[in-house]
Structures are given as C-alpha cells and as structure tokens.
Amino acid sequence: MYNIAKPTPDDLPTSKQLLRSTLIALVTAIAILFTVVLPSEYAIDPTGIGRMLGLTEMGEIKTQLAEEAAIDASMDAAAARAAVQPAAPLGTGASSVTAQPAPIPLPAADSWRDEMQVVLTPGQGTEIKLVMQAGERAEFSWVAQGGVVNFDTHGDGGGQSISYEKGRS
C-alpha cells in the first residue's frame, strides 16, 4: 500500500531537460573551480578574479606553509635519525652512575641585546634559531619592511614541538 501515486510521463523531466540541467551544473562547477577553489587552495588564478577577491593571497599562504611544514618534517626526521645512539655492548661490567646536582641558574646582570637584519628575496625563506635551556625566556620583536612575511614561532626539544604563534606580517 503506497500513498503516493505513480507520476505520469508528463510530470517527469525529459532527456533534453536532464541534459540541460547537467550541463548547467557542470559549467557552474567549472566556474567555481577556476574562480574560488584554485586561487584559495593552490594560488592558481587563471581568471584574475581570485586576486580581486583576496583568495589568491590565501592560497599563497597555504602553499608556503605547506612547503615549510614539509621542510620541517624532513629536518625533524633527520634529527631523529641523528639522535639514535647505539646501546652499550653487553658484558662490559658494572657501570658507576653518580647523580650530579642540577645547576642553579644565575640571575643575569644585564639582558642580552642583539640586532640582526635579514634581507629576503620573493619566495625565499629563512629560519632564526635560539638555543635555550628549558624554562628560559626570550624577548624579541621584528619588523618587515617593503613586503609581507609569514612567520611561525615554535619550540622544539626532547622530541616535542610546540607552536606558539603563526601569522603574516
């Protein structure tokens, strides 16, 4: 028992109407691909509309961050391979281990002050590293002149990575 009556052939769309609707959907999908998806995801803007809407810049940031993440991942993998050390051979006798007291940090008389200038060409990147002990603090500021720079402030140590801030300046 069905409560719905079977539609008549006059109520159904014709093959011509279905083909027309399919072609309209295809053209719309291609238009969205070229004006929105390619510029915003891959920084590819064949029409120029993506740049007018600000989508190409978004795609440029995404691709640059993806490249930087791939470089970081390869550097992390290389560091992990280098950190693996062979265990001591068996049968070497008893080893003596003495506990050493942890060094007490001395208060700094004056803060370290330094200034550096880095000139980057378009598409070039650089990384500035600080080697610090756990719990140490670094105060810094930076300025980008004549262009825009992506940045990623993070910490790596003990096999862990902490991201503090990412952005564009």
Could you tell me how far the N terminus lies from the C terminus, measured between alpha carbons in angstroms? 67 Å
Number of strands: 2
| Poorly predicted tracts of residues | none
Major sheet: size, sense and barrel closure? 2 strands, antiparallel
Number of domains: 1
**SSE string:** HHHEE
Radius of gyration: 30 Å
Mean pLDDT metric: 79
Strand content: 5-15%
Number of helices: 3
Short structural description:
The protein has 169 residues and is an alpha+beta fold. The chain has one domain (15-83, 117-168).
Structural descriptors:
169 residues; alpha+beta; two-stranded antiparallel sheet; 3 helices; 2 strands; 37% helix; 10% strand; elongated
Please explain how this structure is put together.
- The chain has 169 residues and is α+β, with helices and mostly antiparallel strands.
- It has one domain.
- The chain contains 3 helices and 2 strands.
- A two-stranded antiparallel ribbon has the order 1-2.
- Strand 1 and strand 2 (160-168) form a beta hairpin.
- It is elongated and about 90 Å long.
- The model has no long low-confidence stretch (mean pLDDT 79).
Per-chain topology:
Elements: H1 15-42, H2 49-53, H3 55-83, E1 150-157, E2 160-168
Antiparallel strand pairs: 1-2
Helix pairs in contact: 1-3
